[in-house]
Amino acid sequence: METMYRANVALNGNLGSVILKDGLTVPEIRILIHVHGLGSVKEIAMSGKADVNSVDERERLNSIYSAAKVGQVFG
Fold first, then answer.
1. Which of 18, 15, 16, 6 is nearest to 50 (CA)?
2. Are 19 and 7 in contact, with CB atoms under 8 Å apart?
3. What residues form DSSP beta bridges with 8?
């Protein structure tokens, strides 16, 4: 079981465009920081637990953010 999180994300670092994202994994938080900038992901809080397989999670992240962006963060 992996801990899931929720966080406020300032889109492109713009504090006027903040969304709440729930069901985040730690790898997804790292990608969001990479995409939107350092300091763009705030108020991170645990929101639950889920069964997360690392291979499935990488595929999920590739489908949302692109394999290129995931590769930039995790190689």
1. 6
2. no
3. 20, 42
Listed by start position, the domains of the chain span 2-74
The size of the chain, in residues, is 75
pLDDT tens digits, residue range 10-32?
999 999 999 999 999 999 999 99
Tell me how far apart the alpha carbons of residues 71 and 59 are, in angstroms, rounded to a whole number.
11
Q: Are strands 41-50 and 18-24 parallel, antiparallel or unpaired?
A: unpaired
Alpha helices in the chain (DSSP H): 26-36, 54-65, 67-74
Q: Percent helix, strand, coil in the chain (nearest 5)?
A: 45, 35, 20
